[in-house]
Amino acid sequence: MKMYINGNWTSGTSQIEVVNPYSGKPIDTVPAATVEDVEMAIKSAERGANAMRALSAFDRYEILMRAVVLLNERRQDLGETITNEEGKVISEGLLEVDRCVQTITWSAEEAKRLFGETIPLDAAPGNEMKFGFTVRVPVGIVVAISPFNFPLNLVAHKVGPAIAGGNAVVIKPASDTPLSALKLTEILLDAGLPAEAIQCVTGSGSAIGDALVSNPAVRKVTFTGSQEVGEHITHTAGLKKVTMELGSNSPLIVLPDADIDKVVAATVQSGYSNAGQVCISTQRVIVDKSVYSDFLDALAPSVEALSTGDPMRETVNVGPMVRESDAARVESWIQEAVGAGARLVAGGGRDGAVVRPAILADVDRNMRFSRDELFGPAVGVTPVSGIDEAIEFANDTRFGLSAAIFTENLDNAMRFALEVDSGNLNINGGTQFRADLMPYGGLKDSGMGKEGPRYAVEEMTELKMVIMHRS
Ligand code: NAP
Description:
The protein is an alpha/beta fold. The chain has helices at about 35-55, 55-75, 75-85, 90-110, 155-165, 180-190, 205-215, 225-235, 260-270, 290-305, 325-340, 370, 385-395, 410-420, 455-460; strands spanning about 5, 10, 15-20, 25-30, 120, 130-140, 140-145, 170, 200, 220-225, 240-245, 250-255, 280-290, 345, 350, 355, 360, 380-385, 400-405, 425, 445-450, 460-470. It binds NADP nicotinamide-adenine-dinucleotide phosphate.
């Protein structure tokens, strides 16, 4: 596909191959944008931002709702594109399209809710003749940098609110998975978005990222990806608004009174969907000693039963990782943990980019498996004694994006909610839960700022204060 800058679909001077992670074969190419392309895109976006300012809230709502119609019409193609470029199984590819429909619908509705408020200035002494109110205005240009693992819906979480808030947006999709973002760009243009209000620049983040985020015309950078890149962008962006949606190694706590069947179902869903390549994947399962072996005995057969292979086949549960090098990394982390005393209870082998869903028992909290982000189809299980140790271990991480507890005890559930440092706290449900309307974002090294259309629109707009000095 071509990239979209300066109101045109353009080929660029050199190309990047897009590879199907399962077959290892190229499926398409996209341009490798240069720094000059980025500068042209941002210049064009400045004109796009002016065009957006001329639209009413209702115009923006209508454009986004027309995009929803087109997303539904193109559902099958988009789902297959996601699976072909990212490797998730086709049911998850189609689900991502359905979630994108929700994200854009919510964004459209938020276009109608950019409220200000009256401020009672006469409540401050001597201000009887002052009248104040706020108005919310677009920031202007939003740069949206997205990761490979949800190549459509995570782009929608940035583009939808940016448009709802009246901004122009410059998308930089992940180089492994740029096709879904280009197709979303096509849909928004077909839906009537002004030609220069959107740009989709493909190419390596390390080559063009600095030019995108440091440009002073850009007023907001919204990034989803790894902590390392997020930190670099935060330093490079300078004085502009930034939202950082970064990684994690989510804990799931199992207390003695938990319903083990529910825990097993939640661990399988939260640990292995999209081959574990989800920022809120369950990675550290923290189990009270009294139910530790019962839990492992119940979990192992369910994980062994997951079928692996071609993600286009409807019977397959777990497809390939996005790159074979990532699968090799996961394999090596598993071997390292086993070498340090962990027990491999299920899976763990590898065939190319496909890793057999794995369970590691007796994982020690000092192992890399407990400390860093695995981002692969394996969970580590660690025994603890009681709620105090469970909460302490859950918090013994630099991350804080999603956490879960299984218990029937209300006091323990409330302690978990209040004491665990995490953006999302799931009680009797797995860590991998996201409804696209909810506020979503991490604490600590998992990031700053929130997504979810209502919250993202706030972060992509500025509040102005108007004071009328009456006499
Ligand atoms: P990544 O390597 O950090 O890449 C993310 C994006 O940043 C890509 O578009 C990448 O471009 C770009 N990039 C790379 N270097 C850059 C630079 N110097 N300046 C600007 N942009 C640059 O992450 P990933 O491997 O795609 O995604 C996995 C990570 O994302 C995991 O850590 C996961 O937890 C996190 N994630 C977080 C959330 C959340 O909501 N919190 C959701 C999903 C994923 P290239 O592809 O061209 O390198």
